[in-house]
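User: Quick sanity check before I run a bigger batch. Here is a single chain. Can you write out its predicted 3D structure?
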Amino acid sequence: MIGSGSIVSLIWAMSQLGWIAGPVLMLLFSIITHYTSLILAAAPFESVDLGEGGARKYTYVGVVGAKLSGFQTKLCGAYQFLNLYEGIIGYTIYSSRSMKSFQALGAIIFSYTQCLVIIEIQDTIRSPPSEAMKTAMHLSQTVTTSVYMLCACAAYAAFGDSTPQNLISDFENPYHLVDFANIAIVIHDIGAYQVYSRVIFAFVEKTAKEWFPNSQFINQSSINPFRVVSRSIFVLVTTLISMLLPSFNDIARVLGVLGIWRLSIYYPVRIHILQNEVPKWSPKWVFLQIMSMTCLLISLAAFVGTVAGLV
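Assistant: Done. Predicted structure follows.
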């Protein structure tokens, strides 16, 4: 999933990290998140294939809840919705303010967030989802990483260390090219907004039906008034927050940077180890633990940089 804000922030991150560290870190996180995404995409079906009697899970929270504790399930849900909402606010504001090398790490980490919605997207595929998702993920990760690398390296080659934090907003001419870029961003963000908000909408509507099973306002099958009202309020509140509190996106990013590690690395690794009964201290177990801990340390560094940028 290519993010317009991600591309802009990655261009700036490249100017902070340089020709070696910038591409290496982008490629590293691309490989790691692609690996954990493949793990996550297979997770809803592995318990069924192994004959454990479990039903297929259709949400990220459901997959985590099937294998981990109730506390971890609630924590996963909180982090997922926080990061999704931060992304929605970011798409609405289209702003990305950051500082120095640690903040550049945060920009790279937030550029690979497909794990947030991958299971929910998989639920919409009619063909055998596991194989279809693998093909789609191989293609999408290749395209996304290629676009990120191309844009970041080209901009850094053109502007060097003086690369602005927001490449588009810092230029007015040629105006027709800037206008075209902004139109392309709006078109992209409309689709990305829908993908991110769909998960929140589904959770709210499912919870409302469980709490009020006999309500015609909530359970009407044709034109659902609750769906119309709740989604309209969500869009209105999100737009107001974006207009009145543009720093909210930065605050949410501070809280979400560690959540990204849990959602993109920790939970997929834990679930994979439990479902496949990976022996403790085996080469694969050691590799997965080292990968998880390394990403945690990088996330902590990004957290420090994000807090510094906010202050």
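Residues 48-53 have pLDDT under 50 and may be disordered.

User: Great, the batch can go ahead then.
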